[in-house]
Amino acid sequence: MCTLTHRHSLHCILPPYILSRIAEHGPPELRGTAIRALLVDPSIRIVRATTAGPVLGSVARLRSAAGNILTPSPLRTIRDAGNKPEAPGATVVRREGDAPTGDPAADEAYDGLGATFALFWEAYQRNSIDDAGLPLDATVHYDQDYDNAFWDGTQMVFGDGDGALFNRFTLALDVIGHELTHGVTEKEAGLAYFNQSGALNESISDVFGSLVKQKALGQDAAAADWLIGEGLFTPKVKGSALRSMKAPGTAYDDPVLGKDPQPAHMDDFVRTNQDNGGVHINSGIPNRAFYLAATAIGGNAWDRAGTIWYNALLDPNVRANTDFAAFARVTVDVAGRLYGASSAEATAVGSAWSDVGVS
């Protein structure tokens, strides 16, 4: 399980089936770590469900006297949990505008929050996660050897990894963008976190997580690696990343972690009761659709392709139970409204969904 209800989800970057594989097939010293991570997550979900409200910022969008929106800035706070299971962490180590701390995890978290804020503001004029200036908080050094990172509805939380299979989870910029995008999805469409709507929820986070990285690196669609979580694996793992949007199912093939289970086409759609109905597995299908659309459209993926997906997420026809086909129809409709029904953009989007078997 990865949720209690779709309104109170705990969104973790590392799928539960990977932790289960480590608990079953990993070396003895890592099995306990994996089991503890699997046990820690439900307890956080219980707290989240009983205390968290909707995603809502306390800082209104700033406007000039003339009514024009002024350029906002992120309001970041980084806390250190001191390797205790505390979120938020007890010690504030960096606030907005402070100099780097010298702690890689704290500074990577700070920079990642800023890069995600920059993508949504500069590309889509969205002021933070809730579009109302939500302060961006993060806790680093969570728990001991914790193999995960998550958005709990109010903040980002990062483990340091076990050092044997996983590095610290602040290393991957797209992971930070991915997790924060769950907050955007919760605020807008509220996609229920199970089955196809849950896989769409995961895919949208992968899309914008990848776009955060691409924009920060100045990469266009052709130059991007389209990997999610590149750098998280240590050299002991046979794999390049947690997922590949370009080629789902090829990101890793390791004796401990197993083989990447993601399908790239609806012909291989996985029906399962695990992982909330395969939310981290079947997200490979809409992931590849976005990759195909973005590379066919060309240029910077956060421009036209990203604009289509972002506006689709905001479209009133995308609701909590939206499935792949319904979301595909909305993206094609949005592309037609933005660029013309017979435009190259609309054609690319329609072809991309068709190519992955979604009609």
TrEMBL record:
Record protein name field: Neutral metalloproteinase
The Peptidase M4 C-terminal domain, residue ranges: 189-358
Cofactor(s) named in the record: Zn(2+)
Domain Peptidase M4: 103-186
Keywords: Hydrolase, Metal-binding, Metalloprotease, Protease, Secreted, Zinc
A Pfam family: Peptidase_M4
Species: Sphingomonas citri
Protein's job: Extracellular zinc metalloprotease.
PANTHER family hit by this protein: NEUTRAL METALLOPROTEINASE, PTHR43579
The keyword Glycosyltransferase is annotated on this UniProt entry: no
Record has Zinc as a keyword: yes
Class of the enzyme per the UniProt entry, highest EC level: hydrolase
UniProt EC number: 3.4.24.-
Positions of the UniProt region annotated as Disordered: 81-102
Compartments where located: Secreted
Family: Belongs to the peptidase M4 family.
Superkingdom, taxonomy of origin: Bacteria
CDD domains attached to this UniProt entry: M4_TLP
